[in-house]
Amino acid sequence: MADLQTYSHDAGWKNTVLRGLLYLVLILFAAYYLFPLIVMVSTSLKSLDEIREGSLISLPRVVTFDAWNYAWNEACVGVECTGIKIYFWNSVKMAIPAVLISTFLGAINGYALTKWRFKGANIVFALLLFGCFIPFQVVLLPMSQVLGKLGLASSTPGLVMVHVVYGLCFTTLFFRNYYVSIPDELVKAATIDGAGFFTIFWRIILPISTPIIVVSVIWQFTQIWNDFLFGASFASGENAPMTVALNNIVNTTTGVKQYNVDMAAALLTGLPTLLVYVLAGKYFVRGLTAGSVKG
Amino acid sequence: MGASQSTESNLTASIQRHLSKIVVAPSFAASLFFVYGFILWTGYMAFSKSRMLPVWDWAGLRQYERLWQMERWHVAIENLLVFGGLFIVTCLIIGCLLAVLLDQRIRAEGVLRTIFLYPMALSFIVTGTVWKWLLNPGLGLESMMHDLGWTSFKFDWLVNSDMAIYTVVIAAVWQASGFVMAMFLAALRGVDQDIIRAAYMDGASLPRIYFGIIIPSIRPVFLSAIVVLAHLAVKSFDLVIALTGGGPGYASDLPATFMYTMAFQRNQLGIGAASAMMMLATVMAIIVPYLYSELRGGKKNG
Question: For B188, which residue in chain A has the nearest alpha carbon?
C-alpha cells in the first residue's frame, strides 16, 4: 500500500483536490459496472409498451412483475412453453451432485497426494493438473460419442459426469495446495496412535478443511452453474441446463421480442451465483485467484 | 484356519500400504481417459475422413488443408487476435488503474471492490444477454443518446460486420477487468512497505514510487494476469454465442464457435477436430512455458 496521504510532498489543499478526483473516478467506474445490472432490473420490471416508449435509463413508471412471472412459468424454450423453471431445476439437479462429488474427490486426492506420498505422486499431480488448462473443444467430439455409448446422451447424469471429470483437476489443486501447508506431524502422531488412512481423513483432516471446502464448493458451483459449452453440446431439449434455456429464449426469432422477459430470465439465471458471491465474496475471490493464477 | 487368517491380515496390511494409490487411482484413470485419451482421439479424428459420422479411414493432412483453406477459419483467427489483444490490454489497464486507486486508503473500499468484481460471478450468457440489449441499435444506448439530445449519435456495432467483434471486447472487459483488479490489489498489498518509505524519505514523488518501485516489483502478477486472460480469450465461446451468435454472418466468429459450428451443426467432424487441435496447440504454447517457469521457480510458495 502506497497512498497519497502518507506519501505526499505537496501542500494540503492539493491533496484534497486529488482525493476528490480519486473518489470521482472510482464512483464513475462503479457506475460503469453497475449500469448493466440496473438496466437489467429496471427493464425486467417494465411493461413492453413502456420499454418501447421510454428510455433505457428511465425507471419503470409502473412496476410490474409480469415479465418475471412469464419468464418463470410460460416463456417458450424451443417449442416447449413451460417457462424457465424446469431448466432452473435441471441446473440444480446437475450442479448439486457434481459439486459434492468433485469436491469430495478433490479432498481425498489432495490428502493422499500430500500426506501419504507415494513414488510418483508429483507426476500424478502434474498430469492431473494439465486437465485444467485444455480448451474443452478438444474433448467435445469424443465425449459426445462416449456419452452416447453409455446411454447418457442428453441427460442430467451425463452432465454431472462431465462436470465431475473436468472439475477434478481444480478441486484436487485446491485441496493439495491447502494440505501442503498442514504439518505432517499431525498425521504422523495419529498413525502412531494406530489410526489408519480413512480415520485420519475423517477425524483430523476434514474438520480443519472448512475454508478450502467452502472455496472449492463455491468455485465448482459457479463454474458448473455458469457453464454453457457442455450444456449446449451434451444436453438438449427438456434436459438442458438454465444457461442453454436462457440463450434459447433470448435468441428465438419467432413472435414479438419480449425484452422484459429476456431480462427477467437473465436475472433468474444470474441470481444463484450472484447470491453466492454476495454472501461469500471472500471465498469466491480466493477460489478465483487459486484456480486462475495457477489455472 | 490360521493360515487363511494370516493371508487376510497380510492383505489388509498391504491394502493399508497402498491405500493412497488406490484412492487416487480412479481420478487418475479418469484423467488419463477423458483428458489424454480424448486428446489423442480428437487428434486421430483430425487425420481421418470423418464428416457427418466419425470414421477411421486415414486421410492424412487433408482436414487441416481444408481447414486452412476456409475463409471462415481465417476470419475466426483474425478475430481471436483482435479480440484477445484488445481484451488483454484493456483489462490490464483498467485492472491496474483500479487497484492503484483502491489502494489509497479509500473509504468503503469493500463496497467498491464488491461492485467492481461482481460481473465475474455471472455466466457469460447473462453478460451477453444484457449487453445485447444495451447495444441493440433500436432501443438501447443509441436511442438513449437520442433522447438525451444527441440525435446524430450512431452505434450499430452489434449488426455491423466490421465492428461486431468489438462489442464482444466491450462485454468481456466489463466482465473480467474487476478480476484483474483483484489480482493486482492483492499484489500491491504484498509490496514491502520499508522500501516505499525509504524512497519517500529520499524525496521520491508518489508517481515515481509507483513506476519506479511498486509496478516493477509486481511484474510476476502482470505475467499471471496475461496468461489467465489469454487463456480466457482462446476459450471464449459463450459470450460470442449470446451476444452476436458469431454474426452478422460469421463476422464475429472465434475459433471456439467455429469448432462448435463445424462439429455440431455443419457435420464436418474432421474439420471440427482439426480446429480443436489448433486451439489446443495455441493454449499449450501459452501455458506450458508459463507452468514450467512457475513450477521451477514456485518451490517457495508450495
Answer: A1
The range of the structural domain enclosing residue A16 comes to 12-64
In a domain, A1, yes or no: no
Q: Does residue A38 sit within a domain?
A: yes
From B2's Cα to the closest Cα of chain A, the distance in A is 24
8 Å CB contact of B38 and A138: yes
- In terms of pLDDT, which residue wins out, B17 or A263? A263
Question: What confidence tens digit (pLDDT) does each residue in B62-100 have?
Answer: 888 888 888 889 999 999 999 999 999 999 999 999 998
Task: Please report the pLDDT score of residue A177 as a whole number.
Answer: 87
Regarding whether A139 and A22 lie in a shared domain, the answer is no
Classify residue B230 as left (phi > 0), alpha (psi -120 to 50) or beta. alpha
Tell me if A95 is assigned to some domain.
yes
The CA distance from B116 to the nearest CA of chain A, in Å, is: 6
- Tell me which chain A residues have a C-beta less than 8 angstroms from the C-beta of B291: 133
Domain count of the fold of chain A? 2
For chains A and B, count residue pairs whose Cβ atoms are closer than 8 Å.
287
Percent of chain A with pLDDT over 70: 95
Exposed (0-12), middle (13-18) or buried (19+): which is A194, by Cβ within 10 Å? exposed
According to CATH, the topology of domain B64-301 is MetI-like fold (1.10.3720)
Structural domain contains residue A37: yes
User: By three-state DSSP, how is residue A77 classified?
Assistant: strand
Q: Which of A5, A117, A263 sits opposite B105 (nearest CB)?
A: A5
Q: Tell me how many degrees the CA angle A240-A243-A244 measures, rounded to the nearest 5.
A: 45
| Of the candidates B262, B260, B32, B233, the residue with the CA atom closest to the CA atom of residue A234 | B260
pLDDT digits 0-9 by tens, B118-148: 998 899 999 999 998 888 877 777 777 777 7
Determine the residue type at A201: F
Segment B46-66, tens digit of pLDDT: 888 877 777 777 878 888 888
Determine the residue of chain B that is closest to A220 in CA distance.
B121
Cα–Cα distance for residue pair B58/B60, rounded to 1 Å: 6
Between B124, B131, B196, which is nearest A228 by CB? Answer: B124
